Amino acid sequence: MSGAGGFRFIDLFAGIGGLRQAFDRIGGECVFTSEYNAFARKTYEANFPGETPVFGDITQLEDVSLIPDHDVLLAGFPCQPFSIAGVSKKNALGRQHGFACEAQGTLFFDVARILQAKRPAAFLLENVKNLQSHDGGRTFEVIVRTLREELGYHLWYRVIDAQHFLPQHRERIVLVGFREDVPFSWEDLCLPAKGSLRMRDVLHPQDGSEKAELPWTEGALAAVGAKYTLSDKLWLYLKNYAEKHRARGNGFGFGLVGSDDVARTLFARYYKDGSEILVSRGEGVSPRRLTPRECARLMGFPDEFRIPVSDTQAYRQFGNSVAVPVFCEVARIMRPHMRAVIG
User: Fold this and answer.
1) What does DSSP assign to residue 309?
2) What is the C-alpha to C-alpha distance for residues 255 and 247, in angstroms, rounded to an integer?
């Protein structure tokens, strides 16, 4: 389908293009993108301009033939509950079974129907670690059976922690599939020691060594704007909330980090109060939230990455994104096998 060592890929549930960044870097050409959220599309299109506009809701694309032929399918599909009934019961009722029934109504179904129709040489899927345990493991069982038995792909999966590449604990499951039986192996991954990067590597230095980037930093020192500092009232509330749960033996509470630390997972809810990752400003003063640029760095996006949306939307987008360096490494070990299959 693609020659001269190149390959064509599609980017489904694309978010702001984290997976695309990885596959662009190994010589791929994106020929189709789908993303439901209008604000995420705005960010995506700002960073990948001059192309066909991003398609919206993939569930509304009934004619899969409209998707261009491609070599690789990428999808960070959201996990939705699966309604799984026994095949024997469905047979007794004369109903259809397999992924067309078990995955219907979930976003994985749209991945499966495109794989079935277009038969790309390879795919990469990403999801939260808990996909494996969702609904007692039955959700993941349907996914694996669909990909291997019904669609005929050779499948490998592994949970990878972004902390190997970034100062953030973030575990995600990665599923890699090839249409042909290739000698793909997770043993080929090069995973740096955890903790090799710390928060100092993503925080604004505030010493004039970087240029100010309004509206997040300002002045000759490129100091973080005052609006990112928590109000005394909110800081007191968070401390009292944490103390209340600590007294009950619960682990709920804020996460305070300094330059030598590794952060908790950045979630899409960060826009609410920033409590999972608060940057210490010293004893006796309220901490601050990360700026959107610091969130981008924490997810492995380059400083050239454009953020054309409000802080609220940016926090949601980076919290929902993939950790780019993780998938650069996965793309790297996929590439030789893609070359063998595609040419």
Assistant:
1) S
2) 17
pLDDT bucket at 100, cuts 50 / 70 / 90: low
Relative orientation angle of helices 38-47 and 311-320, to the nearest 10 degrees:
80
pLDDT tens, 271-292?
Answer: 999 999 999 999 999 999 999 9
Amino acid at 304: E
Catalytic residue at 79? yes
Rounded distance between C-alpha atoms, residue 127 and residue 131, angstroms: 7
Q: Domain ranges in the chain?
A: 7-193+322-342, 199-318
Higher pLDDT, 51 or 56: 56
Give the active site residue among 30, 79, 295, 328: 79
DSSP H or E run through 324: helix 324-342
Q: What is the pLDDT of residue 57?
A: 87
The answer for residues whose C-beta is within 8 angstroms of residue 158's C-beta and 6 or more apart is 173, 174, 186
Q: Which DSSP letter does residue 80 get?
A: -
- Domain 7-193+322-342 CATH (choose: 3.40.50.1240, 3.40.50.970, 1.10.10.60, 3.40.50.150): 3.40.50.150
From residue 36, give the alpha-carbon distance in Å to each of 13, 33, 54, 306, 329: 7, 10, 9, 19, 27
Q: Sign of the CA dihedral 229, 233, 234, 239?
A: positive
